[in-house]
């Protein structure tokens, strides 16, 4: 385990390692029954009874551990035992001599019936000043509503019976919940119905202590990732954090780790025990985690805010979970036959902790959770921080003598230099094998050779690794792991075209192709990834045509070849084949009027909704308080956030930000400095003409397009100076006055003349009909009832959906119910229907004049991102557009608007592979755009199953 807290936190001890199950041991004794009664708790103590089968010994020693695996520190758990007594079968006390703090010698042991004692907890005295108090992840907690049972603190062992099987009986109040990876057998209810006794079994003492438990007022979440069943138990004393929220914060990381490990079968189930400390004096302060074979105990502060808690827990669990690889399946005899009273330590901490720490960083860049630059920064920090320790120190010697003062101070370097050793070995493995092997593949080979039940000999491991790999690997380990020669990290980074410069790791300019290739293989950023979509009907969108039975070849996110099926002779191996038979391939769709509605929900959740609906380009239309869309856009570009090609305006500009021409100059400069793609005007009434014109002038000077709402108080030609007008509704306000808001100009001669003026200006228009039509659904009692039942609310944050589907919704409050009702001079529903009818009419007129239109839905209220774009398509079809026109508004027209037509908007060679595979022909009915079989974003394929999983994840995020 590693210290994952911010670097200023140096007081927290965080440990790792594992215990391991044995099978096939000789001379296994009869079972030992250990009973713990939580209903008898008094003064933070609980009684424990140990009942062995009949013993043959006259003298026997019972012990609690002095040291447990992974802590590399003395715990002396016998200190917490009180009133230790042994009884014979007649109920008489036997003579007991306490030999040391952890050991009790029992006389006439052949008459021993049972041992009884009380156990005090460690959480309360963690900061008492007493020496060697276990930090909380390896400690024990005994409270009325919570029990942390690190069983090495409750149950001991007999020297001669370490391999005896154990039965563990835990008696609890009937309403307690519990979590553990230990094998559960039966549950018995007491006669009065108030208590429950749970029975567990363990093959031996190692197995018992390898499975911590938590009981009490908990929340439990069970879920599956790949082949592994997870159980998460959370205790949050003030209910600040739920198991469901913590599960969601860990889910992406766990999925990525399971994917990274691929077919590695190190665990079938895994338990995560989370105790959140409320910060009281008697509450634990030694935050961190203790890892076991198939579980981890995590102790964290409940009072930390979400982002900090989740980020640190993410990093901690990223490290701990990788221990299912090593030492769980690759470990030495010192670990396998661990002596709790007089332990010896393996020489290979570099393997157990250094390799694990390295994998916990590498998998993130491999699985696109962080950028390459972030990974370089992580390793550069480790290089710098490792220099604080003795750099000329044999790691094997340090590891073997880790409890001594001389070497203990260097233990933290296991997570710095140990990880760097792993990095160098990984690069060497990849270089020697020409990219065919890696450190991970070597560890998998070692796990196959040894496995969790067959430990290696400490002194033979390096020889074994050398024989399994290359002489350069053996040489490195002899010099830098066994030997004390410092590592010149530049020698190894040079192999992948990187340089250490000013304390940072950076790419070399114009590296040799072989070095760049090795770097790409190392970081899973291969330069060639090929996909073939076979026998598909292509709708290229450069004309209204269907190219039947085509093979489309994609390399590195680009379309490189389109040929009739069976005529393409591919010169490269195909990584992925997609059957397009009877399916239709269109360019990715564009949501050109998107809003991130709720800061409480990660924008990546909205992106899943967009992607699941075939949207590969999105234009955000306002940066609100607490948002940073430049960072979002940049992270999407770097692959740190899975999202569509992303463009953004700056803050939503109202008149209060544009009072003077000086304000206009300042606003444009701020947009330029922040690198926004557009300036969005959100106020159509109160911006003075001279300020508006200055804004346009300054924006043109700095090449930043101005878009947004029309200027209602100025002639139309002023608004046509922008790049786009958002909402068909805006034309109503230009053509009438605020004094006569009910006026709708239906003079077709006038409207056609205006449409020609709009066309001649070159401006784009985003109709966004769906957002206005939604108002009529709010006001129509029958449709409002249907809206509540349409099933899309599950994809919105619960609070948002509850508001919009209630009478508190401000449209209903203003126009239907309550004291805020506004008089429109007619029925509100009729008023808004008249507006909507006019908007549809003018949308058709503008399209007849070939004004370029952008598809967008203004994701607000019950307009659910992704799904709403297909609803917009339906309204455009109602207006009279043919499907091809509608598809143009979402493909080729947005590409031209965004100045990316060279790479987007159509399906042709050289274009980016942003594609949607449909089961039905959208040119026959635009509703067929919803028949999505899969989506390709930047060359990455998302199948229907994957898209369904994304939708499920969004739904779960709203629980």
Could you characterize the architecture of this molecule?
The protein has 30 helices and 37 strands. With 959 residues, it is an alpha/beta fold. Among the domains are: 32-324, Immunoglobulin-like (Sandwich), CATH 2.60.40; 333-522, Neutral Protease, domain 2, CATH 1.10.390. Strand 13 (183-189) and strand 14 form a beta hairpin.
Could you give a short description of this structure?
By secondary structure, this protein is of the alpha/beta class. Among the domains are: 32-324, Immunoglobulin-like, CATH 2.60.40; 333-522, Neutral Protease, domain 2 (Orthogonal Bundle).
Set down the secondary structure blueprint.
Elements: E1 32-37, E2 45-52, E3 59-63, E4 81-88, E5 96-100, E6 103-107, E7 112-120, E8 141-143, E9 146-149, E10 157-158, E11 166-173, E12 177-180, E13 183-189, E14 195-202, H1 205-209, E15 213-216, E16 219-225, E17 228-235, H2 243-261, E18 269-277, E19 288-291, E20 295-301, H3 306-321, H4 333-336, H5 349-366, H6 372-386, H7 395-400, H8 405-408, H9 417-432, H10 439-449, H11 461-468, H12 471-482, H13 489-493, E21 498-501, E22 504-507, H14 513-522, E23 530-538, E24 547-555, E25 558-564, E26 576-579, E27 584-587, E28 589-594, H15 603-612, E29 615-620, H16 629-638, E30 645-648, H17 661-674, E31 679-681, H18 689-701, E32 706-708, H19 716-719, E33 724-726, H20 729-735, H21 748-761, E34 764-766, H22 769-779, H23 781-788, H24 798-804, H25 810-815, H26 828-848, H27 867-879, H28 883-890, H29 892-897, E35 915-918, E36 932-937, E37 940-943, H30 944-957
Parallel strand pairs: 1-11, 17-18, 18-20, 23-26, 23-27, 28-29, 29-30, 31-32, 32-33, 33-34
Antiparallel strand pairs: 1-2, 2-7, 3-6, 3-10, 4-7, 5-6, 8-9, 9-15, 11-14, 12-15, 13-14, 16-17, 19-20, 21-22, 23-24, 24-25, 27-35, 35-36, 36-37
Helix pairs in contact: 2-3, 3-5, 5-6, 5-9, 9-12, 11-12, 15-30, 17-18, 22-23, 22-26, 26-27
């Amino acid at each position: 385990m590693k210290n994952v807290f911010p670097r200023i936190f140096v007081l927290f001890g965080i440990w790792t390692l594992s215990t391991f199950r044995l099978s096939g041991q000789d001379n296994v004794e009869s079972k030992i029954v250990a009973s713990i009664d939580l209903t008898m708790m008094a003064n933070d103590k609980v009684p424990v009874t140990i009942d062995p089968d009949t013993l043959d010994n006259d003298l026997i020693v019972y012990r609690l551990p002095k040291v447990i695996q992974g802590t590399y520190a003395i715990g002396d758990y016998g200190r917490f035992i009180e009133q230790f007594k042994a009884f014979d079968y007649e109920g008489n006390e036997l003579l007991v001599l306490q030999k040391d703090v952890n050991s009790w010698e029992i006389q006439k042991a052949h008459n021993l019936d049972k041992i009884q004692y009380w156990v005090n907890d460690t959480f309360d005295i963690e900061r008492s000043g007493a020496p060697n108090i276990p930090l909380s992840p390896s400690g024990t907690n005994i409270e009325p509503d919570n029990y942390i049972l690190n069983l090495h603190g409750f149950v001991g062992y007999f020297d001669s019976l370490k391999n005896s099987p154990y039965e563990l009986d835990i008696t609890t109040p009937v309403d307690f919940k519990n979590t553990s990876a230990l094998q559960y057998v039966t549950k018995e209810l007491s006669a009065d119905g108030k208590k429950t006794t749970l029975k567990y079994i363990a093959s031996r003492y190692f197995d018992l202590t390898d499975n911590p438990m938590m009981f009490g007022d908990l929340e439990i979440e069970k879920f599956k990732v790949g082949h592994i069943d997870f159980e998460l138990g959370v205790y949050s004393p003030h209910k600040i954090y739920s198991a469901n929220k913590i599960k969601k914060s860990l889910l992406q990381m766990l999925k990525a780790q399971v994917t990274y490990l691929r077919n590695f079968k190190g665990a079938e189930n895994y338990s995560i025990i989370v105790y959140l400390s409320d910060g009281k004096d008697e509450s634990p302060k030694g935050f961190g985690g203790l890892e076991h074979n198939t579980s981890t105990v995590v102790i964290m502060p409940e009072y930390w805010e979400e982002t900090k808690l989740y980020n640190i827990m993410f990093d901690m669990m990223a490290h701990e979970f990788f221990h299912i690889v090593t030492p769980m399946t690759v470990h030495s005899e010192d670990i396998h036959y661990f002596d709790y009273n007089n332990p010896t330590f393996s020489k290979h901490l570099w393997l157990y902790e250094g390799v694990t720490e390295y994998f916990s960083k590498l998998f993130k860049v491999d699985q696109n959770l962080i950028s390459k630059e972030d990974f370089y920064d992580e390793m550069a920090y480790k290089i710098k921080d490792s220099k604080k320790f003795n750099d000329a120190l044999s790691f094997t010697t340090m590891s073997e003598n880790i409890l001594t003062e001389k070497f203990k101070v260097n233990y933290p370097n296991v997570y710095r230099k140990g990880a760097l050793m792993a990095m160098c070995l990984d690069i060497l493995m990849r270089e020697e094998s020409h990219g065919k092997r890696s450190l991970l593949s070597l560890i998998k080979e070692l796990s196959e050779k040894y496995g969790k039940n067959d430990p290696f000999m400490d002194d033979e491991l390096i020889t074994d690794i050398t024989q399994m790999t290359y002489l350069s690997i053996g040489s490195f380990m002899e010099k830098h792991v066994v030997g004390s020669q410092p590592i010149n990290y530049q020698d190894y980074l040079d192999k992948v075209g990187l340089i250490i410069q000013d304390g940072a790791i950076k790419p070399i300019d114009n590296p040799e192709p072989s070095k760049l290739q090795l770097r790409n293989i190392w970081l899973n950023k291969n330069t060639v990834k090929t996909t073939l979509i076979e026998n598909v009907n292509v709708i290229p969108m450069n004309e209204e045509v269907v190219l039947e039975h085509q093979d489309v070849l994609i390399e590195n996110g680009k379309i490189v070849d389109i040929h009739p099926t069976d005529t393409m002779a591919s010169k490269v191996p195909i990584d992925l084949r997609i059957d397009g038979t009877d399916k239709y391939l269109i360019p990715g769709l564009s949501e050109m009027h998107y809003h991130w509605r709720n800061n409480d929900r990660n924008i990546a959740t909205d992106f899943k909704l967009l992607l699941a609906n075939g949207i590969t380009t999105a234009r955000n239309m306002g940066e609100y308080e607490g948002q940073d869309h430049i960072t979002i856009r940049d992270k999407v570009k770097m692959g740190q956030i899975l999202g569509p090609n992303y463009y953004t305006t700056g803050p939503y500009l109202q008149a209060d930000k544009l009072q003077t021409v000086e304000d206009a100059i300042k606003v444009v400069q701020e947009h330029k400095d922040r690198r926004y793609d557009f300036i969005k005007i959100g106020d159509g009434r109160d911006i003075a003409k001279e300020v508006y014109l200055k804004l346009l002038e300054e924006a043109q000077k700095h090449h930043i397009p101005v878009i947004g709402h029309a200027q209602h108080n100025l002639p139309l030609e002023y608004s046509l100076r922008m790049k786009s007008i958002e909402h068909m509704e805006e034309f109503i306000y230009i053509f009438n006055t605020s004094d006569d808001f009910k006026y709708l100009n239906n003079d077709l001669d006038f409207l056609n003349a205006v449409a020609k003026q709009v066309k001649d200006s070159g401006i784009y228009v985003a109709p966004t009909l769906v957002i206005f039509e939604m108002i009529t659904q709010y006001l129509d009692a029958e449709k409002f009832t249907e809206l509540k039942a349409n099933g899309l609310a599950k994809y919105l944050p619960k609070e948002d959906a509850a508001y919009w589907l209630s009478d508190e919704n401000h449209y209903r409050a203003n126009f239907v119910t309550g004291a805020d009702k506004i008089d429109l001079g007619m029925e509100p529903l009729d008023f808004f229907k008249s507006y909507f009818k006019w908007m549809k009419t003018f949308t058709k007129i503008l399209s007849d004049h070939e004004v370029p239109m952008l598809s967008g839905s203004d994701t607000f209220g019950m307009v659910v991102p992704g799904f709403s774009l297909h609803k917009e398509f339906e309204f455009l079809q109602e207006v009279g557009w043919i499907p091809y026109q509608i598809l143009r508004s979402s493909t080729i027209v947005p590409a031209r608007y965004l100045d990316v037509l060279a790479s987007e908007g159509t399906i042709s060679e050289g274009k980016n592979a942003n594609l949607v595979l449909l089961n039905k022909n959208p040119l026959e009915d635009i509703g067929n755009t919803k028949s999505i079989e899969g989506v390709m974003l930047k060359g990455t394929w998302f199948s229907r199953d994957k898209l369904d999983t994304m939708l499920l994840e969004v739904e779960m995020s709203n629980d």
